[in-house]
Amino acid sequence: MDRLSPLQTDRITGTNGRFGTYTWEEVQKHTKSGDQWIVVERKVYNVSQWVKRHPGGLRIIGHYAGEDATEAFTAFHPDLQLVRKYMKPLLIGELEASEPSQDCQKNAALVEDFRALREHLEAEGCFKNQPLFFLLHLGHILLLEAIALMLVWCFGTGWINTAIVAVLMATAQSQAGWLQHDFGHLSVCKTSRWNHLVHKFVIGHLKGASAGWWNHRHFQHHAKPNVFKKDPDVNMLNAFVVGKVQPVEYGVKKIKHLPYNHQHKYFFFVGPPLLIPVYFQFQIFHNMILHGLWVDLAWCISYYVRYFLCYTQFYGVFWAVILFNFVRFMESHWFVWVTQMSHIPMNIDYEKHQDWLSMQLVATCNIEQSPFNDWFSGHLNFQIEHHLFPTMPRHNYWRAAPHVRALCDKYGVKYQEKTLYGAFADIIRSLEKSGELWLDAYLNK
Q1: How does the protein's chain sit in the membrane according to the entry (predicted)?
Q2: Would you tell me which of 168, 172, 202, 208 could form a disulfide with 303, CB atoms 3.0–4.6 Å apart?
């Protein structure tokens, strides 16, 4: 390898031996694995090695390589001062004074107004949690599980009683899913450390899943929602084609793993029933073993030990396994319809390098508020506010929503809100439309 000249060395380390100044053109050259730079608050960081130790997973930083990551950095970290300390050793310079703060010709006024909105919401206390809210939520999950076990204890294992028990257990599992989501986003406890610890307990002991696996998937989704090759939630494993771009792309290339023009029909048999009991179940254990997540595995095993100790004494091993999978089957339907109603019908495309507000709004929509919708969806009916402010406690989304809507109106950014039924129906309509686009391209292009 050629040695750097003194001039090149100064360019990299700066004349003071610490850092230099860079243009966006130079920053954008460092986007590949093993050579990744990001910009945060006009400072340039070399994160090439740090990505492997990043608590949110290595891919999330990689998705912002060569870009301004300021808005994502602010959105994901509740304690910015602490994170800045960890980032100091990675600092290699800053943008040249003549360079704009935003890359890719983003609207600087919109970015600044969104930053001001966040500061306003912080001043109003929208990022402060109510511990009683989460304690009551945890309490009602434990109560549902206790009632289910008591019903078996008192009334036996008849079909009707077992059906009631399964519904109660599936409800507890779904609600525990929303609760682990809160801890995973660091929106409950005052410190990240306690959020991470309780997250492992809730997702591991109450649900039998892995915090590390969830972090790896879910933070990528938030960082680049509905962006192909960056959001794992739109990786449909060739079972579906989604959006308007992918169907045409597959059609032109004559890719036909399944009859996609019928995907809105087979979705009912492939999507909701199988995601959790088959795909997620395999992926969770594979991920824990492959990456050595032994603490997660221990918490996960504790869930299975607790479940089988409680239910095999009544049902035996075989029927306890059947009950377990039936509960997962029902939970999977709940999970899929709630999580996809705000994303699948929205824009799904390759990277467009939009500002944070615009990127989140084209990929998300809200469902109208009601006490039932709030509980049923774990407040993910406020999907827009959740994506814009992922560390905000969910009981405060309703307070942020009018301010977000006003900012969207100011800049002509579409803010969508639907009924629950309309959102469910849009999943099927969007799959049908994508299937038609695929068929037309497959036959005619």
Answers
A1: Multi-pass membrane protein
A2: 208
